[in-house]
Amino acid sequence: MSHFKFIFSFLFFVIFSAADTASALENDALESVNAPLSEAIFRPDSVVTVYLWNDTPKIETLTLTLLGGTQERRDYLTLRVFDPQESYLLRRLIERPGDGSLSVLGSTEESKIDSGEVHPPFDLKSPTWNRSLQSYSVSLEEPGLHAVRMVSGLKNTALQLENGAISEWGVSFQNGRFSAWREKLSKAWFYVPEHALTLDIAGTGITLRDENGNIVYPLKNSSAGTAALIPIERPGAVWQIDFHADSEWTFSAAGFSIILTENPEAAKRFAQVTLKTPQGSYVNHNFQVKLEAIISDWLSAHDTGNTEELLARLDAIPECVWMEQDPKMALAMRQRYGLLPSIRFALAEQNLDPDSHWSGVIGNNVWTQRIDASEPENRWDYLRSIPGHRGEGKGGINESPAATPLAYAYRLKHPLNPYYNDKAVLHRAVAGALRDMMAITEDEIIPGSGSDRNTYPGIPAFVFGKRYFPEFGMLAPHVPAEVRAPWTEGMRRLFDRYWAEGLVSTRNQSAHYLTAFQWFAIGTGDPDDAALAKAYARRYVEGASSAGYHEEATGPCSTYAGMQHFFMGQYYALSGDPLMLEAIRQSYNFYNHTVAPEANGSAYGGFNYSHRTPDGFHAEQFFGARNWLKHVLPEVALWQTSPTPAQEAIERQKLRSNLQQPLPEPIISLTALLPEDLSKIDNSISAFEIDELIWPAESQASFTRMFGDELIAIRRPAYYTAIYVGKPAKGAFYLGQGADGLLPPENYEEHTGGDLWNLYYKQKGTMRPFNNGGMTTFWTPAYGNAILAGKTAYTHHGLVAQTESGVRHAEAYFSTDAQLDKEQNQLVVSGRLDSLPLTYTRTYTFEDDMVHVDLQLRGRSDFSVDSFVENIPLAMGSFKPSGSELFVQGEPIPMSLDAFPPETHSALKLKKYATAAFGLKDSKGNGLQVELDQIHPVVFCLSGPRGREGIQYNRAEIHLPTVWRDGDTVSLKYILRPILKD
Q1: Residue 58, number of CB atoms within 10 A of its CB
Q2: What percentage of residues in the chain have a pLDDT greater than 90?
Q3: 403 in helix, strand or coil?
Q4: What is the helix (H) or strand (E) element at residue 439, kind and residue range?
Q5: Which residues touch 256 (CB under 8 Å, ≥6 apart)?
């Protein structure tokens, strides 16, 4: 048997899909030309389904064999076999560590759901495994269509099936990449469902023909692999696909589930994967037929309340109740990302007609726009992705209100929630949640969730973390068994499909699955499912870096860490899993060492190390785990600063003004509000006194700490500094356009007060992480942050060479080498410039009251540049409570920040001095002085780019030679000396 080469796919984010449709065909006797199953090896990428037609009343035995891949790495697997009624004949969720062992996960006890039915238990018998082989035997006792589904999350395990009698079979790689299942394969056929509208396909080494033999792909004059949207002019037909003998073919497709078979007549068998409900909807699964009937009955037989009366409750909350709340939390509930606007929209927009094709739907008013159109435009089951119903929203992610906010409304006991435990809201929420389930395709995906033609699990994570799984977890325990059972069946299909997928490099996406899977376990009430959720959480925790953070684009990111922490914290709140609590603590410990406090207690940090966004950890998204763990972890509680009376008065005035305005249109069906009644945390008990907590930078004891081999934190009596030297990125791809030179920002925004976030969104090539040994922050107890480094050339601490065209060159990411000598209080960082023949060595010596910096440069060949500087970013702006002023030789630099409009290069607010000393002072005389070993030309910019929180990243540029010869050396030495006014 041959093992076929692993095909890695690019990420195709095509927002397109349509439900599979067909009517059942008569069981004609068909002649098989399929090769025997034993000759086929199916290698998932990362999913495969094999369909088997058992045409005789005789019991057939099917042998399933797992074949270990050649990669020395682990894999996560789900392996399932379904009978013609879609009941389990086999269900295994497996961890394969890669060392030849294997474990089937779950508990030893069978558990029951409320209906009294027993779901298939896990088989915990020790399997026979010899590193590359594991076999299961399954009896196929009923005639009809069976399905074998496998997910190999890390794509390191293949599947072989054996049965001597079954001759009619087909294979679908679902939304993944199709590839050969045996060596010699020239043709295959597939059935086009009767209500198919289009086929979205992209591939190489294939020719696709319609029922008349006409070539429909590739398109004429199109390059190999180009995606095409092919209209279906005659559905209910069999199409042919030819595989080119001279190439290794592969393709992906969406629009309906393609099931390939080597028997053109047998292709018609697989029309049966589509069902038509009594109400006329096309679906793919038996549980959906049951759910559609339940939706109609639920809306007709249960009280759904009066919409106007329900909406009026939001306006009837007395102002005094609002003003008694934490004003920030109250404002958060009213803003566009908050809970109340989403509740209002969901109540007003939902289709409550039990006889409607769109009954229960919530989202973007799609049904109101389409319901009166002509067929097929008036139907959700004919169309591809539909906003509000099939996952599609901004960027392909479902960000429209759905049943989730109504689920929160029903479950959340809070003075500002007038719908707690309201049965009408429950009935509406359940109807909306069940209608969501109708979107699940034969491929077990949600069309429009970024999964139509791509198995990358990160994008559907947003949908599952915010919509399908929270709805189920909050509502399923409160519905009758006859509703909960088919709902659970459908949710288990999604769970099994995505549980085995690997962690993605942008961990905030995978973090959504933490809470999604825990909500699933809560919804089923099954200890096996809780164990599986915990197993995924363990996988997530084990994916942390040695420094303690969880990666974003393979490195730390100080703002996306907040989204990670939010879902990690919510998972802990729902599960009480101590392993996750420790993971959150370690992650916060890493990021807390990148920040330091100002005199008002608010902490700020640099972000030169950030592998994605341009802001410090003070801007962590979703407020991190603060709402979940503010009374549990000291590392999190540090961020719960109490507002001053003046600040609180301002917030209350903002709230009072906001109450005079109507609720805005919602953006996203996610609330940052803590559902405390769902949490296992006792928030009334604190193991520490918040007032006694201090930041690492404030430690009374000196320390030298290294987090993994990446972040170095130094505390001495007179200062604190953090220096990043790690290089976790796995390749230049993860560094963006800045991997080999940095682009000049448009309109010189980096020099003229431009917004760093605007630069990030419109010109990411100006940014990249810097690991050259430059300081992330330099802080003194009296002055606060004096150096804060960003991730543009002129906001990082280090070398910048600029060519005549404006392109910048800085230290090469992968060249960095760092040696820390704790005994000598020294750090030596060496490397080279990207694309320029120059090497550097930067040596820090940390004394109690100052830091010595010794920079040695050496030319390795002849070159010249337009300018070459040692850049020192200086933290200024309104975030400094006592102000800040730049001085040279003890004299302030007189500049009015408003005197220079930022429109043109000529308006740059630059001043050049020849000096040996400069620095920053506040109004009290505290600050930082930079003392050069000799007089150098220094250019100062007080119109540097701006961040949030009132931070402006101004700078001093110490100028270096611009013409270099091979062997030239230059030495630059300076001291960073804190200034403490007597």
Answers
A1: 10
A2: 65
A3: helix
A4: none
A5: 18, 19, 20, 21, 192, 193, 196, 199, 442
- Dist CA 388 CA 763 (whole Å): 31
String of DSSP letters for 825-884: TEEEEEEEBTTSSEEEEEEEEE-SS-EEEEEEEEESS-EE-SEEEEEEEEEEETT-TT--
Which pLDDT value is given to residue 865? 96
For residue 563, the SS3 value is: helix
- What is the rounded distance in angstroms from the CA atom of residue 960 to the CA atom of residue 936? 8
pLDDT tens digits, residue range 931-973?
999 999 999 998 899 999 999 999 999 999 999 999 999 999 9
Please list the residues that pair with 228 across neighbouring strands: 201
Burial letters 138-170, b for 16+ CB under 10 A, else e: bebeeeebbbbbbbbbbbbbbbbbbbeebbbbb
pLDDT, tens only, 520-548:
999 999 999 999 999 999 999 999 999 99
- Tokens at 60, concatenated: 């057939």
Structure tokens at 99: 């060392």
- CA dist 634 → 561, 625, 867 (Å): 17, 12, 47
Residue 954, classed as helix, strand or coil, is strand
Question: Rounded to an integer, what is the distance from CA 949 to the centroid of its chain?
Answer: 25
Can you tell me the distance from the alpha carbon of 487 to that of 297, in angstroms, rounded to the nearest whole number?
Answer: 15
Question: For residue 858, what are the β-bridge partners?
Answer: 839, 969
Q: What residues form DSSP beta bridges with 215?
A: 209
| Nearest one of 952, 864, 958 to 912, comparing CA atoms | 958
User: CB of 837 within 8 A of CB of 808?
Assistant: no
Tokens representing residue 659 in the block? 């109450």
Q: Are 154 and 76 in contact (CB under 8 A)?
A: yes
SS (H, E, C) 468-504: HHHHHHHHHHHCCHHHHHHHHHHHHHHHHHHHCCCCC
What pLDDT is recorded for position 690? 65
Among 438, 431, 451, which Cα is nearest to 380's?
438
Please indicate whether residue 935 or residue 731 has the higher confidence score (pLDDT): 935
pLDDT band, very low/low/confident/very high, at 736 (cuts 50, 70, 90): low
Residue with tokens 């002055």: 783
Residue 788 C-beta-side C-alpha neighbours within 13 Å: 33
How does pLDDT run across 773-814, given as a tens digit for each residue? 999 999 999 999 999 999 999 999 999 999 988 899 999 999
Q: What does DSSP assign to residue 331?
A: H
The residues, any chain, with a CB within 8 Å of residue 966's CB and separated by 6 or more, are 837, 859, 860, 861, 862
Q: What share of the chain is helix, strand, coil (3-state, %, to 5)?
A: 25, 25, 45
Contact 79, 66 (CB under 8 A): yes
Pair of tokens at residue 362: 């919530």
Q: Which helix (H) or strand (E) holds 168?
A: strand 168-172
Model confidence over 311-369: pLDDT tens digits? 999 999 999 999 999 898 888 889 887 889 989 999 999 999 999 999 999 876 778 88
In the block, tokens 């902490």 appear at: 603
Place of tokens 């005389």: 925
Bigger pLDDT: 654 vs 740: 654
Phi, psi values for residue 849, rounded to 5°: -120, 5
Cα separation, 295 vs 428, in Å, equals: 10
Q: Which of 136-140, 241-245, 367-371, 507-511 has the lowest mean pLDDT?
A: 367-371
DSSP for 176-199 reads: S-B--SSS---EEEEEE-TT--EE
* Residue 783 β-bridge partners: none
**How many angstroms from the chain centroid is the CA of residue 682?**
29
- Tokens of residue 947, six digits: 């961040």
- The structure tokens listed for 65 are 């064999």
Selection from 443-457, 650-664, 895-909 with the highest mean pLDDT: 650-664
Helix axes 423-437, 403-411, angle to 10 degrees: 150
DSSP code at position 261: B
Tokens at residue 147, please?
């399905």
Measuring CA to CA, which residue among 175, 717, 725 is closest to residue 454? 175
